[in-house]
Specification:
alpha+beta; two-stranded antiparallel sheet; about 55% helix
Length: about 70
């Protein structure tokens, strides 16, 4: 079986109450599809808040590395 050296690639299986979905592609694309599968508004808002906080922390770390 051949292995490819893919970068920025992910495969995810999403189980929902009425269907199962196999998603694959770029990490950003898979993240968006996974986010779309979150069923209720409250959970989506909580996940979005956590993702925003993570993004801010990553940007801060990247800026600190550039400054060093």
């Amino acid at each position: 079986m051949a292995r490819s050296k893919r970068t920025d690639y992910a495969k995810v299986k999403i189980w929902m109450p009425n269907m199962i979905s196999d998603v694959e592609g770029t990490i950003a694309g898979v993240a968006l599809e996974t986010f779309s599968a979150i069923g209720d508004t409250f959970t989506r808002e909580q996940v979005l808040k956590l993702m925003t906080e993570r993004h801010e922390a990553m940007v801060k770390r990247e800026a600190e590395r550039k400054a060093a």
